[in-house]
Amino acid sequence: MQDHRIAPANVLERGIAAAFPGWALKRSISRMGLEHARGYDAAKSGRRTSGWTATGGSANAELGEGLSRIRNRARDTILNNEYAKRAVGVFGSNVVGYGISIVPANKAEAKKWNAWSNSLACDADGTGNLAANIKLAVTERFGAGEVLIRRRWRKATDGYAIPMQIQVLEADHLDESKTGPLANGNYCILGKEFDALGTCVAYWIYPEHPGEMTGWRTSSFISKRVPASEIIHYYKRDRPSAVRGVSELAVSLMRYRDLADWHDAELVRKKMEACIMAIISSEKPDKALGLSSTNGVEKMRPGLIARIGASEQVTFNSPQASGAGGEFSRFELHALAVGSGITYAQLTGDMSQANFASNRMGLIEFRGLIEQEQWLSLVPVVLQRIRTWWREAAALQGVPLGDQDLDAYTMPAKPQVDPLKDAMTAKETIRGGGMTVSEWLREKGTTLDAYIAERQAEQKKLAEANIVLDTDAATSELGLTGAEMLKTPPVA
Predict the structure, then answer these.
(1) CA 152, 383, 67: angle at the middle one, nearest 5?
(2) Most exposed among 90, 130, 141, 179, judged by the fewest C-beta atoms under 10 Å?
(3) Which Pfam families match (predicted)?
């Protein structure tokens, strides 16, 4: 049985509407305005949002049509824009620096690994060691949005101690047109093949770069299936559904281009102001521009003034300075720095807009982003996979291997803004138990084992040479004299 009872509020409203229709109308309008005000502004339709068109497609659907266009425009901007090139360089130098140290725990393995990673034998192109290839991959990931690293097996007859090399490939090698169901029951999205569980099982790769000038082989333009076990796809996944990466500069590409155009326009305007010093007007037809070789002006040059006749008049040019040009340029560069993920000072080299404290705070935030890239992307996605590849190849050659130590990675040392303050802070932190010596050494780009070995060797040589330094805690903290120190037997 249905309940036909009416809520008291509705009864009140009906009574007001019957007795006082004008008041009821005002209440209704007020209620509608209240409900409208309670909604999200971004969800409303009106004058302010009339030109705001947003799609509800997946990350792959939105990238599908413009992925290569964004990548190509980002590369063009990096090639031709000083600030964009600087942004890529800053990112690469801070993430990789002079190289990320990888020291396997097993000494025999470490010896073979160092010989492979520090030589050209690791590079299929033969142009750089492992650190150089990682730096190339990082900068390409930042600029183009993604990069591929392929494992290349070598024959025993090729003469390599470890029969494996790596090859860094641009994302252009990935066949974006390969999208849709496949005959084997899998499906492709922008060149990546997935099984029924959504696991990437293969990549469809062009043997040569599609834009290579030597594309003389027809097979170069036919993509081939390469198992996922042979490919590292290094990209930043901004959305859960994304299977491809987009340039870090994508959000700022239009601003990079517009600011460059504005600078060019300002430069042309300044040149024109410098060229036109005086404008000559005359009533005589033979004095018109191009008709008189004596008084006419065919070309302009800075500081030019033409000779005039008795009937001619001269109006001097008064260039108008553009207002707030520098402020506008700085505002735009601040926006570019934010969009590129670096600080304004790093992008421009201009330190006048920051004091010591603000610059230090900016670096702290920036270094946090760099550490995220290092430990959340570069190490698990790239370095650990390369280590796994190498261990598989080394095992075939009978190299003794230890456990795969996930703590073997040491990032390059961070440059110090104030070395004395930083050292004192680290000293007090270690003394208070807030940091271990190992942690501090890792920040300096080395390890405790490497430090101990080097320190022991150094102390032994100093003792043999009868040299005492007051940097040793025994002299500075315990108050021992040099003679007493020399009586101490050297470290074996």
Answers:
(1) 75
(2) 179
(3) Phage_portal_2
CA distances from 452 to 77, 289, 434 (A): 47, 83, 21
Start-to-end C-alpha separation, the chain = 97
- Is 435 contained in some domain? no
Is the same domain home to 259 and 282?
no
Q: What is the pLDDT of residues 276-332, one digit of tens each?
A: 566 666 666 555 444 444 455 445 566 565 555 556 666 666 666 665 577 888 899
**The total number of structural domains that make up the chain:** 3
Residue 226 lies in domain: 63-263+342-412
SS (H, E, C) 69-115: HHHHHHHHHHHHCHHHHHHHHHHHHHHCCCCCEECCCCHHHHHHHHH
Pick the closest to residue 208 from 200, 219, 199 (CA basis).
219
Residue 475 within a domain: no
pLDDT tens-digit map of 171-185: 999 999 999 999 999
**Chain centroid offset of residue 331 CA:** 21
b/e sequence 314-338, b meaning 16+ C-beta within 10 Å = eeeeeeeeeeeeeeeebebbeebbe
Specify the 3-state DSSP secondary structure of 257. helix
